[in-house]
Amino acid sequence: MPALPSWDLFITLFLVASVAYGFMIQRERVLVTLLAIYVGVVITQLLADPVAAFFAGDKTIAGSFFIRSSASPFTIHTALFMGSVALITLKSGLSGNRESGSLSMLEIMSYAVLNAALVVTVLIGFLDPTAQQAFLAASKNAAFIFTHRFWWFMAPIALMIITGHNRRSEY
């Protein structure tokens, strides 16, 4: 029987893909993605319960429209988070196209890794406690990332302050 790949492989591939994506979008676009992740966390926290109530059939729109489904809380949280991140990143008008503010290769790689770790942390946090413990027990990378979640939220802010201090503002 062939061995199945572990979650560590998928997390590592996600981190590598995030770094590659960071190099492709370059400049401040990686910062727009970071901002979208933070906003996605806030939107998810604010809207998860009302959306869950809507999908459970407990809440209506305009007094008559509702949906009954068996969507799990993880599915609702993940859909809200990923949808809001994608919408803000792609349609917000925050282009980040300033030529003079281009980031170095090290800065882009740092932001990309921090973005990926932040997304993994948030998604693990959406799991119910039993599934979360099982997932963390099955993946050393996930356990490391989730254990250090405070730093994944704070490090991008510190990096923006440190790297932004060395740039002259255009405003």
Question: What secondary-structure arrangement, pairings included, does this model have?
Answer:
Layout: H1 7-25, H2 29-55, H3 73-91, H4 105-126, H5 129-138, H6 140-147, H7 149-165
Helix pairs in contact: 1-4, 2-3, 2-4, 4-7, 5-6
Order of helices and strands: HHHHHHH
Count of helical stretches: 7
**Radius of gyration from CA coordinates:** 18 Å
The count of strands amounts to 0
Q: What's the mean pLDDT score?
A: 81
Assign an overall shape: globular
Secondary structure class reads mainly alpha
Distance between the ends: 62 Å
Helical content class: over 70%
Q: What ranges have pLDDT less than 50 throughout 5 or more consecutive residues?
A: none
Proportion of beta-strand residues:
under 5%
Major sheet size, sense and barrel closure: none
Structure description:
The protein is 71% helix and 0% strand. It is built from seven helices and no strands. The longest helix is centred in the N-terminal third of the chain and has 27 residues. The chain is globular and about 55 Å long. It starts with 6 loop residues before the first helix and ends in a 6-residue tail after the last helix.
